[in-house]
Amino acid sequence: MISADAIRGYVDLMILSLLRHGSSYAYELAQRISSISGDDYSIKQTTLYSAVKRLESSGLVSSTPGLSPSGKARTYYLMTDDGLAHLNAKVAEWRETKAVVDRFIDSDTGDAPS
């Protein structure tokens, strides 16, 4: 299982990635995160709620009241246009970061490639 510390900076990226496919409520987001991660990572509800509230206060996500399929009141979260732009920038940053870290992990000598 991946530790919360190792993935902390990427929770917003995971949430925005899910919301680019449509609106969702917090419990559903948590279930989808566990499912997609293959149960290698399970997000705590407090972490999830803090993240969606932070994303909402930053204007990257909006919320609207709604009902679940069973009729229970839910708050649905939807990514804004600013959220999509932010997601695209963060995905590009992630790919660049991963490429740099992979160079260190995959290096046999610790020297820069020639």
List keywords for this structure.
114 residues, alpha+beta, Arc Repressor Mutant, subunit A, 5 helices, 55% helix, Tscrpt_reg_PadR_N
- Rg over CA atoms, rounded to whole Å, is 17 Å
Distance between the termini: 36 Å
Kindly name the structural category: alpha+beta
Q: CATH superfamily membership, which one? A: Winged helix-like DNA-binding domain superfamily/Winged helix DNA-binding domain
Figure out the total of helices: 5
- Strands ordered across the widest β-sheet: 1-3-2
The largest pleated sheet is described as: 3 strands, antiparallel
Could you list the spans in which at least 5 consecutive residues all have pLDDT below 50?
A: none
- CATH topology name, in short, is Arc Repressor Mutant, subunit A
Strand percentage lies at 5-15%
CATH architecture: Orthogonal Bundle
Share of residues in helices: 55-70%
- Described by the principal axes of the CA atoms, the overall outline is globular
What's the CATH class label?
A: Mainly Alpha
Number of DSSP E strands = 3
Domains (count): 1
Mean pLDDT: 91
Structure description:
The protein is an alpha+beta fold. The protein has five helices and three strands; from the N terminus they run ααβααββα. The chain has a single domain, classed as Arc Repressor Mutant, subunit A. The model has no long low-confidence stretch (mean pLDDT 91). It comes from Microbacterium terrae. This is Transcriptional regulator PadR-like family protein. Pfam families: PadR (PF03551). InterPro entries: Metal_resp_DNA-bind_regulator (IPR052509), Tscrpt_reg_PadR_N (IPR005149), WH-like_DNA-bd_sf (IPR036388), WH_DNA-bd_sf (IPR036390).
